[in-house]
Amino acid sequence: MAQLLMMNLSSVSSSFLVPNTITTNRVSKVSIRSSNTSIRKCVATSSTEKTGYKTGVSRNANMAKLQAGYLFPEIARRRAAHMLKYPDAEVIRLGIGDTTEPIPEVITSAMAMKSHALSTLEGYSGYGAEQGDKQVRAALASSFYADLGIEESDIFVSDGAKCDISRLQLLFGSNVTIAVQDPSYPYVMLKLEKPLATEGVKHISSFDLMSSSKRGCWFGHDSMLTGQAYVDSSVIMGQTGQFQNDVEKYGNIEYMRCSPENDFFPDLSKVSRTDVIYFCSPNNPTGSAATREQLTRLVQFAKKNGSIIVYDSAYAMYMSDDNPRSIFEIPGAREVAIETSSFSKYAGFTGVRLGWTVVPKELLFSDGFPVAKDFNRIVCTCFNGASNIAQAGGLACLSPEGLKAMRKVIRFYQENTQIIVDTFKSLGFNVYGGTNAPYVWVHFPGRSSWDVFSEILEKTHVVTTPGSGFGPGGEGFIRVSAFGHRADVLEASKRFKQLYK
Ligand SMILES: Cc1ncc(COP(=O)(O)O)c(C=O)c1O
After folding, report:
1. Pocket, ligand 1, Cβ cutoff 6 A
2. pLDDT for 118-131, tens place per residue?
């Protein structure tokens, strides 16, 4: 692996007023608070030793089909370059979907108690049920699926929704066809219009970034290797064709365009039948949530085609309108849908790791075999159960006090979202999302997402996410995440107002 970083932090001069180097008629100079403490020195990782020896094992051809997961590494690289250019700038990160608020104490104290109990003879427990603790499953059923016909035995507790999505791929095997929303939760491919030859920062691979973050480097943890949940896992399983550079899509995947023109819900009359339909609502990145009527159409579409919907509801608790929180609110959904969800964004469990997947017993394969029985087999084969400490936390989350505490944290992020929405609206932008998800999807018609990303970073020192990183359908948009400290969100909004006034 090539040498990755050549950082000479001391040689870079600071700048208080950021020079206006990008031409746009909406842009003004932004004055920015400076801080000398916002950069940590980055120690370049040593490159991996190159050896001439090769094993006799051929590479999995499906792995070779994968496109580089450029989005987050590229954002991190541009941010690193920016920090070199403006070492005194106070960079604000509203690009990532990682939580920033502390976990409520009612939840951490339950985890601490469980942890201490593990040091006692009476309190010790080893392997638990692969499907999860019975009490946690029961609490999930009553908290999120009461009156929806979902029982404790339909719920599999896990180490997170992303891991469950991969286990679902194993369940389906390599012979299924899939459909995904475009844009969708981190999309695999980003075509760089202008490969960035940034001074002082050479090409950095995801692997390099991970090594750097493990060494405590400035890059830090930024979900750099995250994503590609639906698409990449199906590529790895061999369900797709090769990547087609001209259209920036994999062969054999049905991409369902979701844009303001169709109210972020695909025109199902133009969607070909697939075996599996991945559907995320409230959506990451667009922040939109499907209505009851739209979901009814989706369920009917799946039923007509004999498809299975994998419904990702990881942001359902962020919804503020009365659209469905679960696909199982739609009549007939138990015969066509699986739902996956997570404590990550509800309770700040992105690091703790706890999620769940619902596979109703009514869901059957074409030969009549229950999908849940096969999923159970997959779970028992590939997973030894979620951490008992995390599950103690999950149970606390679902207690009356825990639910109250989670709602309070969510309300905090909702207020952040509102600040961001109001800011962009006041500047005359068309703004989507925000009402039902902690993501704001801002339209910059006719402009490249990466140009807008660069403009915002250059002029305001705020990191956002370019919409095209989530798929071709995201071109012309940027995603602004509401996960951040209040002072940062307010400061970012002030800078946005100065830039686009
Ligand atoms: C839509 C969606 N689903 C799933 C996940 C991952 O959840 P988990 O942390 O439980 O793996 C994310 C994380 O950002 C997400 O945005």
Report:
1. 97, 160-162, 185, 280, 284, 312, 314, 342, 344, 350, 355
2. 999 999 999 999 99
